[in-house]
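Why do we care about 3D structure at all? Because function follows from shape, and shape follows, mostly, from sequence. That is the central idea of this module. The next example makes it concrete: a single protein chain, its amino acid sequence, and then its structure expressed as tokens.
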Amino acid sequence: MSSPPQACAPCGKKSDKKVSVCHNGHTICISENALQAHLDHGDVCGPCITQSATASEEIGAPNAAPVMLEKAGAVYPNPTLGIFNVAIPASPFSDIQILISDFSGKTIDRRTVKANSQQQVITFDYSQKSKGIYFIKVIGKTTASPRKLIIK
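And the structure:
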């Protein structure tokens, strides 16, 4: 399979051609060849996001453990080869903006995510963008501190 049927965050070694999925409440790293079967039985791309974890857990680690999103979005995997996810908190009453800026502070991407009572994961493909450091800010009722993203 040349590419996964859905853009999921890569995990493991680059040569492994594996992606992370949330399977029955646990984050697992699977072969791209097995992705469609997992999606067909209800798994979702990216690490699990649950309410049971504390906000003090590390956010943005590859194959991240479940995290609780309070004010800011988790960015994973980080560092990345270009495909990454931004997990945003439930926001049933207001839209959320995701702003991405380059190292100089110039905004290079802006997306609005519609109000939703569920946490959401937004996937970005920056594999054709320049390698380097980017900053991601999730803005809702509160503005989060920017998250640093490294693209290798």
